[in-house]
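If you are new to this repository, start here. Below is one unmodified record pulled from the training split, so you can see the exact layout before writing a loader.
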Amino acid sequence: MEEELIKVTPDKEKAKSILKMVETRLELLATVDHDKFPSPVFADYYEVIKELITIILLLDGFKTLSHKTLIEYLQKNYEDFNEYEIDFLDDLRITRNKISYNGFFIRPDYFKRKKQDILKIIPKLKKIIKKKLG
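And here is the target side for that same chain:
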């Protein structure tokens, strides 16, 4: 993982800007029919989580192009997340990749089962960011 992390200068303004985009995406997601469009909605929720973790790395002085490294960084540096949540994030990453690169479709009931965990992780990530932004 270490070789995939790139040292950068922490940038609170950039972090705030990315966070604003995350909030915009969440607002949009609230207007979409999740039963009709479960795959794109699922992929967008993954993007929200990925961007929130990206903000945490940025505030810690790092960046990476690897989504897997984002999750590994969170696991290694933030005890706020238990093993189940880290495994869940990695499953989200894998499923999102199938959707984005293989045209994989998930069923609405699959998304409904995963949504509760997604909606628990987002506020945990936001809480870390809020603390770091002061």
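Two things worth knowing about this chain: The chain has one domain: 2-133. The CA atoms of residues 82 and 92 lie 15 Å apart.
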